[in-house]
């Protein structure tokens, strides 16, 4: 039996797991790992496949079965972090955006960051004015198809590319105009470099939004950038806090706390509520890692951070990588021939259709777009270019961030319609990384139940009341009928959490009483004559307590003990 157990254990340890990692150009890298393989091993395999040396800016992201996203921790086992069943599906993404992406040492690194920011632009995370949007899209066009050629690029060729969640014909014409007249002769590397330089100046550069609510119940998006902590609420940037002003971050259940210390010893505590405790913990860990990466001078200064207190089971976390300054110093020492870059070019893309020949997605018919000019970028003209030193304040309308929505009529070539009533709502903030194909219907239903549109086309169908929406509702009803106990399970989980909190409170109370009792016994019965104990014993309050309460209690207790002992002896 022992031999069978040992052989079974060895087979379990030697088991291999298939991993598929989706890269930034939407190609896929597949490999097998052992059960005890660490995250660092998988990450090194990817970087070797990509011929990437400046790898500290990147990470591997995955989504658990509860649709909660995570960054793979390199010091822990991959299999133990993945709660889903194999094969595992993950994504290679930029985790720490470079403070100055144009200053990166190698072209391969700049190209990967370019792909990530292009993805941010498409998914609505990177917001900008119409003029900046046209320039960024023109850079992408130049990098992917080269110089304008009348024989290859007929009238309206820019409309075949999807750069943003939504855009208008006016913006498409502006993109084509810049591509034809201003960017001729630029190589893909030059266009990508210019794209990075422009994107780095935007206020939402590096934003990876976390949906939350403030103390008033208003929706907000929290994000960590290379320059500090950002809160986007409604269509405004409510707070921007530099990293050297953030003194502490912690979380308790669904509640996230940010402690800020500004000039003149002004201290502020910002409180936000995440959708779930797991989302709050992910937010907290992202904040700890970003602050360590951008703020510290050396990785030796990194300390383990705890979120524990008396009433909640705390979490401990420590950032395990190098910091930004060390990464820059290491990059300066790279001396090798530049690796060959295999650019994606015009290849179909699942998540970023800006490089496809397919038709542009739109939420309204083409004939109607001329009248309403639905365009996320035209709705962002009011966004003001400001420095990254904005103090904590309520943003004015000049700082407005605007998301996809309905715009007004453009009155002149210089004036654009401002979409003022829409909220910042990045397209993939709810589900930023892929999951298994068979769970797409469940994702659609869960996002519709939460009031979040799944995509532009899905939102259009739901507004029009098409049969697709009715079919989705029918499937949702069947799923709810199949799972009648989901509500009771959630209620039972809440009760269990409450009971555990009460038990922790009782244990802490008993422990404190026990410590006080030990201190009292030491004060009254021991012969220790230290200055601390002597000062306490000489106080009138202690003498009164000792002679009027403690001594009678001690005599009564001793009498009871003697009586019990005599009773036991007699029996």
UniProtKB/TrEMBL annotation:
Subcellular location, principal:
other
One Pfam family this chain carries? FERM_N
Its name, as the record gives it, is: FERM domain-containing protein 5
> Which processes are annotated in GO (biological process)?
actomyosin structure organization
Q: Which domain of life is it from?
A: Eukaryota
What SMART domains would the database entry show?
A: B41, FA, FERM_C
Where does it live in the cell?
A: Cell junction, Adherens junction
Question: Which residues does the UniProt record annotate as the domain FERM?
Answer: 17-298
Locate the transmembrane regions by residue number: 498-524
- A GO CC annotation given for this chain: cytoskeleton
Name the gene.
Answer: Frmd5
Alphabetically, the GO molecular function entries are: cytoskeletal protein binding
Among InterPro entries, the record links this protein to: Band_41_domain, Ez/rad/moesin-like, FA, FERM/acyl-CoA-bd_prot_sf, FERM_2, FERM_central, FERM_CS, FERM_domain
Q: Which PANTHER family match?
A: 4.1 G PROTEIN, FERM DOMAIN-CONTAINING PROTEIN 5
Q: What does this protein do?
A: May be involved in regulation of cell migration. May regulate cell-matrix interactions via its interaction with ITGB5 and modifying ITGB5 cytoplasmic tail interactions such as with FERMT2 and TLN1. May regulate ROCK1 kinase activity possibly involved in regulation of actin stress fiber formation.
UniProt cross-references to CDD domains, sorted A to Z:
FERM_B-lobe, FERM_C_FRMD3_FRMD5, FERM_F1_FRMD3
**What does the UniProt keyword field contain?**
Cell junction, Membrane, Phosphoprotein, Transmembrane, Transmembrane helix
